[in-house]
């Protein structure tokens, strides 16, 4: 169960950096959050983790609409998620978390949630990264 | 019953054993065939002389079927239930099926033993061998098969005569008026037609070499090859010798269940006499095969006779005949200038369609044949004169749509309604309709279009147009952005289907960087990051290695880059090297190293030209006849970056050994002594398909012009994600149409296609270089926009065989 406590806002980037219909990924309270600006100027934030593949990639999906609802399609297997509710529109029952998002002072901000659904520990805890950025 | 033996291995035998297996027969099946190979598509025999390989013509032997090839059956011992073979072996049977087909009839004239016939692969090999050094040929017989043989001789470069006993050509299919129009067409092609003429003698010289053909009036036609195609005779000799009933004029007598006078012996195909008739078309032969298989398994199927309608395109002329060739009333359309003759036969009350004949335009065949014996669907004049034929008519369910495979309109509708089939390939797979001669495909399309299931061409919920229609809108209206297009011609804001499609069209038409301005938001992640996304969200990087040729220095650079960035390295099937495991923020750094060493993007990520593979060619190979590597490099550099409805692959082989596997490519080139043969429409993958020969012995310039147009016409008209193979199959008129458009410029499009390709070639730029040189584009390549230096911590690897591999993370 998710318990949402009072919000703390994290700055993601300047609004003009967030191009229409092109997502970015931000670290918000240690979580990977995919942030989008739709064509009409509104901003949305959802979890970056694609629940179908286990990869953190939703920010790199194609933004569009389905029946008027703003959506993003997973770049791996193309399942479409609502940017408003986080629900997967192709596989009912699956959803990604959504985060409050706003534009303040020309900046995009996303609220970190103080409490998150139960999760396993950090995914790299048991592995070792063999690749370092040169 | 345990053992079924089939004598003869032609198309009927093949269909029979296939049907037995499909229906679950689990006993032993042995097929004994006199030809040294399994059954092949005899209907397409002539294509063997124009480049289709034997392998492509040959049917696969169904699993578990034993074959004795190159083995003639010489006798049947009905008492002991065994057949004897020419090798002296005996094969016991519980059920024997005669599928011995027929043999060409050779009139008993002097010298006939020096003439050829036209029925088997071996016959064609013999004709091809004899054509070497010959300049003239004669075909005796101006029927369907005779004209096909004449076409083959002409294709072998011979001046060709056709001698036909009847007063006009194809007397079984057309009447005198049609025959006259047909003769005009054939003479226009440079063949001489001698109708109403017989044969006196095949003239030979002292060594027995053919020098000509003497007609009964004493006149002589010079020829070094004579081919008899004067009718066929059922091969009923086995049955006759065994005392099984045969017809007065030949053919093994069978009942409606294909059983002969011996209950343990069946006969199918061209050797059978069913209902007093021998059938010389593959459609009825297939039906007989199905009926026999059903009966042997205890079924009750009956052969009810068959439609002898024919439609063919011979020497480029369409000829068709359906139903009756006479009637109380008839309506004729004749255009001697355009070479078109169409005639419909109608009952005396002018209500019922009885049949029709078409020469020069066979459109009424497809639309009207199913109405034979039924009320006329419209006024006869409208049916013949409007040119649209009967398009738009509703067929009754019982009307036969595909005569080759005996499929009714109802069966096609059922496949659409019950099995959810929504396109022609689906109908083919489900019903077999359209899989033999293909003439019914337009009909299948119409049934699909009219079926209750709306087959929408709409790309997605945002556009009601097909990709080809969008292409035209963008081209004609000069649209340059997605927003402009969707505001004017669509709804909503697009999706992962229409956006990349439009991006691809814009790229094909205008070129320009795929990440420029708004276009960046249209791209699939692969195009957006100019790399291929992998299962863990990392990307793979493939530098272009044109033609697979690479210097040691460049090879070392790839190795160093892979080592320094810790990338998993694998050689691809396209003769290049794929580097896996790069994070988004590493991509520009990797490209920089590669670009500095002279590499560029290989477009492995795009629906674009991938690679042009090559074998080493004449420079090194002792068999090579042309420089395949040089051509492959030139082609790869010409078409690099060309965005298309789907990926494009190519290969060049330096000789007929085909080491580059060019025939599995969208466009493949095989060197000949004279130049290049171009094959198109091949692919590997889920549904492999060999490319078809498109043009032969081209010079390099001709080759490039032809490929330019082929690609641009494909890009312009194909559906989204339709490879060239599916495109060629779906396009009305198939490959012949494509050839017409790009070789004969039948649509007047060639200048535009050429200009579009020239624009592409002159505006190409390397996407990697353009990206690393543009800070704005570069700023997108971070894992986290608010922590640009931080790599994505969720990406972790383990090791396998001394390289990295993604660690599987369960979501
Ligand atoms: C050039 C050409 C073009 C054609 N075009 C068309 C067309 O467009 N449309 C159409 O409908 N039809 C067409 N046909 C006709 C079609 O090919 C035949 O209807 C079909 O091949 C008949 O099949 P079948 O198996 O009955 O006989 P066949 O194809 O004749 O096969 C019989 C096989 O049995 C073998 N055999 C015979 N006797 C023995 C024996 N004693 N022991 C062992 N083996 C034996 C023969 O060698 C042969 O391989 C064409 C035919 C030709 C030659
Ligand atoms: S009519 Fe020949 S394939 Fe259908």
From TrEMBL, chain B:
Q: Which residues form the FAD/NAD(P)-binding domain?
A: 3-272
Q: Which reaction does it catalyse?
A: hydrogen sulfide + 6 oxidized [2Fe-2S]-[ferredoxin] + 3 H2O = sulfite + 6 reduced [2Fe-2S]-[ferredoxin] + 7 H(+)
- UniProt cross-references to Gene3D superfamilies, sorted A to Z: BFD-like [2Fe-2S]-binding domain, FAD/NAD(P)-binding domain, Sulfite Reductase Hemoprotein, domain 1
Indicate the segments forming the Nitrite/Sulfite reductase ferredoxin-like domain, all copies.
534-595
The UniProt note on the cofactor reads as follows: Binds 1 [4Fe-4S] cluster per subunit.
Q: What does this protein do?
A: Catalyzes the reduction of sulfite to sulfide, a step in the biosynthesis of sulfur-containing amino acids and cofactors.
UniProt lists the family membership as follows: Belongs to the nitrite and sulfite reductase 4Fe-4S domain family.
Q: What is this protein called?
A: assimilatory sulfite reductase (ferredoxin)
Recorded source organism is Nonomuraea rhodomycinica
Gene, per the UniProt record = nirB
């Amino acid at each position: 169960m998710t318990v949402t406590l009072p919000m703390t806002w994290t700055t993601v980037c300047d609004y003009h950096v967030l191009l229409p219909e092109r997502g970015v990924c931000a670290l918000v309270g240690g979580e990977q959050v995919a942030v989008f600006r739709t064509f009409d100027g509104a901003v949305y934030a959802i979890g970056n983790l694609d629940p179908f593949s286990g990869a953190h990639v939703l920010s790199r999906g194609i933004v569009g609409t389905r029946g008027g609802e703003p959506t993003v399609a997973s770049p791996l297997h193309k399942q479409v998620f609502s940017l408003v509710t986080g629900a997967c529109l192709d596989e009912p029952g699956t959803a990604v978390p959504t985060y409050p998002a706003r534009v303040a002072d020309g900046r995009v901000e996303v609220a970190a949630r103080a409490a998150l659904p139960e999760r396993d520990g950090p995914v790299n805890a048991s592995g070792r990264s063999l690749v370092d950025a040169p | 019953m345990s053992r079924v033996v089939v004598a003869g291995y032609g198309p009927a035998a093949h269909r029979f054993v296939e049907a037995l297996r499909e229906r679950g027969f689990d006993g032993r099946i042995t097929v004994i065939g006199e030809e040294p190979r399994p059954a092949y598509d005899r209907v397409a025999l002539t294509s063997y002389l124009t480049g289709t390989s034997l392998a492509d013509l040959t049917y696969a032997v169904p699993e578990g079927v034993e074959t004795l090839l190159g083995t003639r059956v010489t006798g049947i011992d009905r008492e002991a239930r065994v057949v004897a073979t020419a090798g002296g072996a005996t094969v016991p049977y519980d059920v024997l099926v005669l599928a011995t087909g027929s043999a060409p009839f050779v009139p008993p004239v002097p010298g006939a033993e020096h003439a050829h016939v036209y029925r088997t692969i071996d016959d064609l090999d013999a004709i091809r061998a004899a054509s070497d050094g010959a300049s003239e040929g004669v075909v005796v017989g101006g029927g369907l098969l005779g004209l096909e043989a004449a076409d083959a001789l002409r294709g072998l470069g011979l001046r060709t005569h056709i001698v036909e006993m009847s007063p006009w050509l194809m007397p079984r299919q057309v009447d005198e008026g049609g025959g006259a129009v047909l003769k005009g067409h054939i003479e226009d092609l440079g063949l001489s037609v001698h109708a109403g003429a017989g044969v006196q003698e095949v003239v030979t010289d002292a060594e027995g070499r053919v020098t000509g053909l003497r007609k009964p009036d004493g006149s002589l036609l010079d020829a070094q090859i004579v081919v008899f195609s004067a009718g066929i005779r059922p091969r009923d000799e086995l049955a006759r010798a065994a005392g099984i009933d045969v017809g007065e004029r030949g053919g093994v007598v069978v009942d409606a269940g294909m059983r002969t006078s011996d209950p343990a012996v069946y006969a199918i195909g061209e050797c059978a006499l069913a209902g007093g008739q021998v059938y010389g078309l593959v459609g009825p032969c297939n039906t007989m095969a199905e009926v026999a298989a059903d009966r042997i398994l205890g079924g009750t199927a009956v052969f009810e006779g068959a439609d002898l309608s024919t439609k063919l395109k011979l020497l480029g002329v369409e000829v068709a005949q359906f139903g009756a060739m006479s009637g109380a009333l008839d309506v004729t359309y004749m255009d001697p200038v355009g070479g078109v003759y169409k005639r419909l036969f109608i009952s005396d009350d002018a209500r019922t369609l009885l049949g029709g004949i078409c020469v020069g335009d066979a459109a009424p065949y497809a639309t009207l044949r199913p109405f034979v014996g039924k009320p006329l669907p419209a006024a006869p004049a409208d049916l013949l004169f409007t040119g649209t034929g009967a398009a738009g008519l509703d067929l009754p369910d019982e009307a036969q749509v595909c005569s080759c495979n005996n499929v009714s309109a109802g069966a096609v509708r059922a496949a659409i309604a019950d099995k959810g089939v929504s396109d022609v390939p689906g109908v083919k797979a489900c019903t077999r309709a359209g899989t033999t001669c293909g003439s019914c495909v337009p009909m299948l399309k119409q049934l699909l279009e009219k079926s209750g299931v709306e087959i929408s061409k709409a790309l997605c919920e945002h556009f009601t147009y097909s990709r080809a229609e969008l292409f035209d809108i963008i081209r004609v209206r000069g649209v340059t952005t997605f927003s402009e297009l969707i505001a004017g011609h669509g709804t909503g804001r697009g999706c992962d289907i229409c956006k990349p499609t439009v991006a691809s069209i814009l790229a094909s038409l205008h070129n320009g960087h795929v990440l420029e301005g708004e276009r960046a938001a249209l791209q699939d992640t692969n195009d957006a990051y100019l790399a291929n996304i992998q299962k863990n969200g990392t990307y793979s990087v493939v530098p272009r290695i044109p033609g697979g040729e690479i210097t040691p220095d460049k090879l070392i650079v790839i190795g160093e880059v892979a080592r320094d960035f810790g990338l998993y390295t694998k050689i691809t099937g396209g003769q290049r090297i794929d580097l896996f495991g790069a994070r988004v923020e590493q991509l520009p750094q990797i490209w920089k190293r590669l670009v500095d060493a002279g590499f560029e993007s290989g477009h492995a990520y795009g629906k674009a030209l991938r690679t042009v593979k090559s074998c080493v060619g004449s420079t090194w190979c002792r068999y090579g006849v042309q420089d395949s590597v040089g051509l492959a490099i030139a082609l790869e550099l010409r078409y690099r970056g060309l965005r298309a409805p789907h990926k494009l692959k190519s290969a060049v082989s330096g000789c007929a050994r085909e080491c580059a596997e060019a025939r599995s490519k969208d466009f493949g080139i095989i060197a000949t002594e004279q130049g290049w043969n171009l094959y198109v429409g091949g692919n590997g993958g889920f549904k492999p398909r060999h490319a078809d020969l498109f043009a032969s012995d081209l010079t390099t310039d001709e080759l490039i012009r032809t490929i330019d147009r082929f690609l641009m016409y494909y890009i312009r008209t194909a559906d989204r994600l339709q490879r060239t193979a599916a495109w060629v199959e779906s396009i009305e008129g198939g490959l012949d149409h494509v050839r017409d458009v790009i070789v004969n410029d039948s649509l007047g499009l060639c200048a535009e296609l050429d200009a579009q390709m020239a624009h592409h070639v002159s505006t190409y730029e390397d996407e990697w270089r353009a990206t690393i040189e543009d800070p704005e584009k570069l700023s997108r390549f971070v894992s986290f926009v608010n922590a640009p230096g931080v790599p994505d911590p969720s990406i972790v690897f383990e090791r396998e065989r001394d390289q990295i591999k993604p660690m599987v993370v369960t979501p």
